[in-house]
Amino acid sequence: MNKSEDIKLLVSRFMEGETSLDEEKVLYRYFNSGEVDAELLPLKEMFCSLSLLNEPEQKAECTPKRTRRIPMYKTLLGMVASIALLLAVGSMVWHGQQQDYCEAYVYGKHVTDQQQVMKEISGTLQDLHQNEATDVDNQLHDIFN
């Protein structure tokens, strides 16, 4: 018999509950090695987990090794967070400045003089107060007809 068939026989005896502790250790070592037969790969995780229960020092062999992508992911996440923070602070500074200009279109003319714009607004509000009988719907109706 070759090693693969011996392992398959041990696996079937293990499933029947007929293996000794030494035979189980052989199975645990086999499944913790990197040379597991393709036919037995579905059982690898189960035997790795069982070996951890019996022999905790094999934990390093059984757990998969992590790739170097995690530090890169953290670095990229940190860069994105920094850029978002800079954009937030920049927008607060940009919009926090008080606007010192006034802009309106009065009778089709572009007006930027604050006193003139306020004068036209006051006049319009007074006209609306004087014509209390007319409401906004009537005014819109008059404009669009």
UniProtKB/TrEMBL annotation:
Residues spanning the membrane: 75-94
Keyword Membrane: yes
Keywords, sorted A to Z: Membrane, Transmembrane, Transmembrane helix
Protein name as it appears in the record: Uncharacterized protein
